Amino acid sequence: MSSSIPSGYPKVELGVYYSEKSLLNTVDIHILRPYEKKNPSDIWVIYIHGGAWRDPHITSSSVVPTIEHLSTLCVTPPGSRPEHSSLETKPPTTKISSPPQLPAAVVSLNYRLSPYPTHPSHPSQSSEVDPARNIVHPGHIQDVMDGIAYLQRGYGFGENYLLVGHSCGATLGMQVCMNREGWKGDNGDVQMPRGLVGLEGIYDLRLLRDTHTEHPVYDEILEGAFGPDRDGEWDKASPAQATFNQTWMNAEVVILGHSSDDELVDEVQVESMAKKIEEERFGARRLQVLKLRGSHDEIWREGREAARAVIVALAMLEL
């Protein structure tokens, strides 16, 4: 398939620092076509990678396969046609009448990680030696807020973006939008996204642990990222236990994508999040639960299913 990215694009900047907190506070910026600031048709996609809050091998570069599929499955807006248009290409297995416009840009955030001393090749060291890999909540979400604030200041797209996250990246995406106390840091003025796509997301921390009591690694991961579950702290950090009606009033689209082949995160996570969104009254949000195909990490490694979910969201924003 030919690419819909116009001649002279993409314009790519990798490893741009959005904060001086650590070497992990970087963002990869892929500008895919010309755009105008705050033009509702020029949607930015901000991607948050997964990795159980701790895996050093899953980084901002994990979005690249998704970008490659988006470039062949979307169309280019008038005035910025590529030399070989893909107007005839329709995204597979989606219930939309025509492919949406190519996003103006896709950016992918890195953030500081929680301890992983048992990693087989790159174990984390002590906090004195390796502070960027010894973070607990709300350090991750504050980094993500810092990154979004940096991008909004620098590129001026305001609320005109789609937040996309895989696994714990979906948790972080929802945490950006939910009512928070003491999480915002210096970025309480971050504008919320018009839409959000969660891919194989974790939305209820305690439920994740309780669903996998036979696998102690889940408790290890959650305690490493959030500390012990005392005084309801895990529930306070869980999007499926949160409220959104004070912070996310501009919500238009929520896509919750999940594959029945996911061997790590159960469908009950999506069910709990969908129930919460249906109960809440915020914005004009439209919810779609999207069935994906592939294993947990295959969704981002192959990229086609992640791109399909993004395309559904982009098409819904165009309606």
Keywords:
single chain; 319 residues; alpha/beta; 8-stranded mixed β-sheet; 9 helices; 8 strands; globular
Describe the fold and architecture.
The two termini are 26 Å apart. This protein has 9 helices and 8 strands. Strand 7, helix 7 (267-279) and strand 8 (286-292) form a beta-alpha-beta unit. With 319 residues, the chain is of the alpha/beta class. The radius of gyration is 19 Å and the shape is globular.
Question: What is the structure about, briefly put?
Answer:
The protein is an alpha/beta fold and 319 residues long.
Strand content: 15-25%
What's the overall average pLDDT, rounded? 91
Shape: globular
- Please report the distance between the alpha carbons of the first and last residues: 26 Å
Biggest beta sheet attributes: 8 strands, mixed
Q: Name the helicity range.
A: 25-40%
Count of discrete alpha- or pi-helical segments spanning 4 or more residues? 9
Succession of helices and strands: EEEHEHEHEHHHEHEHH
Spatial order of strands in the largest sheet:
1-2-4-3-5-6-7-8
Contiguous low-pLDDT stretches (5 residues minimum) are: 81-94
Outline the fold blueprint.
Elements: E1 11-17, E2 26-31, E3 44-48, H1 64-73, E4 105-109, H2 139-155, E5 161-166, H3 168-177, E6 195-199, H4 205-211, H5 216-226, H6 233-237, E7 253-259, H7 267-279, E8 286-292, H8 298-302, H9 304-318
Parallel strand pairs: 3-4, 3-5, 5-6, 6-7, 7-8
Antiparallel strand pairs: 1-2, 2-4
